[in-house]
């Protein structure tokens, strides 16, 4: 995909990784629309990109996800890509994490991205793309993160299946599966306390890899053990 003038909705643009992805895409000439939950953080994110659409949504309200896609498409005159970069985490052993927290993680990390993409697949044309951040836990589930790992693995499975569906329609599916990043995300859990974590990678490097992957129609971004992003042409 040529990023110059590409019309791209970034959902979760108020987050550290979402903000870095937005900056990368805008820096390469894309016309971005931002979607976020917290109104003041959304207004602050939009100030960095004067004149861009800034659209509120809550991942816990599926209709607001579909509405954000419709609003972004109307504001930009169509869409060429939708990038989902929001998410929530909780820590604790399986018996400590309650049903409500597990349901929250499933809603925010799996069902809400699916709601964005369901709406997007109705308007995206051949050559366009959907992209979502899962995480290394989607591949290697971690103790004290069973429900977080399961929600990300569910999103990964959903993306894998949709990638096979959309081969005939020409819509690309990009999974962004980084290891731990230094964004503060792990210190903002909806429940539990963060366990000791290694030094994380730089989200700006992952954001650059995401832009590279969109430009080259790659299917996967991972990170190597030292945090260096890796763009992989085919998902695995
Ligand atoms: N940091 C890591 O180590 C790491 C590693 C692998 C994958 N990831 C994934 O990367 C993504 C971005 O995380 P980050 O590191 O950039 O952390 P972050 O800065 O805390 O960003 C989290 C984002 O998710 C949004 N969000 C949370 N709950 C929401 C809800 N109910 N409705 C709408 N938005 C909601 C937040 O919105 P508000 O601004 O409204 O709070 C924020 O924009 C997440 O999916 C995370 O699972 C992170």
How does this model look, in words?
This protein is α/β, with parallel strands linked by helices and 236 residues long. It has one domain (7-171, 180-199): Rossmann fold (3-Layer(aba) Sandwich), CATH 3.40.50.720. 39% of the residues lie in helices and 16% in strands. The chain contains 6 helices and 8 strands. The chain has helices at residues 16-27, 39-47, 62-76, 99-121, 146-165, 203-216; strands at 7-11, 31-36, 54-56, 81-84, 129-133, 172-177, 220-223, 229-232. Strands 3-2-1-4-5-6-7-8 form an 8-stranded mixed β-sheet, with helices on both faces. Strand 6, helix 6 and strand 7 (220-223) form a beta-alpha-beta unit. Helix 3 packs parallel to helix 4 (99-121). 48% of the residues are buried. The model has no long low-confidence stretch (mean pLDDT 97). Residues 12, 14-18, 36-38, 41, 58-60, 85-89, 108, 133, 135, 178, 180-181, 183, 185-186, 188, 200 line the site of NADP nicotinamide-adenine-dinucleotide phosphate. NADP nicotinamide-adenine-dinucleotide phosphate (NAP) binds next to helix 1.
């Amino acid at each position: 995909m040529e990023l110059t003038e590409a019309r791209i909705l970034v959902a979760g643009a108020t987050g550290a990784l979402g903000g870095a992805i937005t900056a990368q895409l805008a820096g390469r000439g894309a016309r971005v629309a931002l979607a976020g939950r917290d109104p003041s953080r959304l207004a602050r994110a939009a100030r960095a990109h004067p004149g861009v659409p800034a659209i509120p949504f809550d991942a816990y309200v599926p209709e607001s996800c579909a509405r954000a896609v419709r609003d972004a498409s109307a504001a930009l005159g169509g869409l060429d890509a939708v990038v989902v970069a929001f998410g929530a985490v909780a820590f604790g052993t399986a018996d400590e994490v309650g049903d409500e927290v597990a349901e929250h993680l499933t809603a925010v990390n799996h069902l809400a991205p699916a709601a964005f993409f369901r709406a997007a697949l109705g308007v995206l044309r051949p050559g366009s793309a959907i992209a979502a951040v899962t995480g290394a836990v989607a591949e290697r589930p971690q103790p004290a993160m069973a429900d977080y790992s399961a929600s990300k693995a569910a999103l990964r499975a959903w993306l894998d299946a949709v990638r096979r569906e959309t081969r005939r329609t020409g819509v690309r599916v990009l999974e962004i599966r980084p290891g731990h990043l230094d964004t503060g995300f792990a210190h903002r859990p909806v429940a539990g306390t963060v366990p000791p974590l290694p030094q994380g990678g730089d989200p700006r490097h992952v954001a650059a890899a995401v832009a590279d992957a969109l430009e080259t129609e790659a299917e996967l971004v991972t990170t190597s053990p030292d945090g260096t992003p890796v763009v992989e042409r085919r998902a695995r």
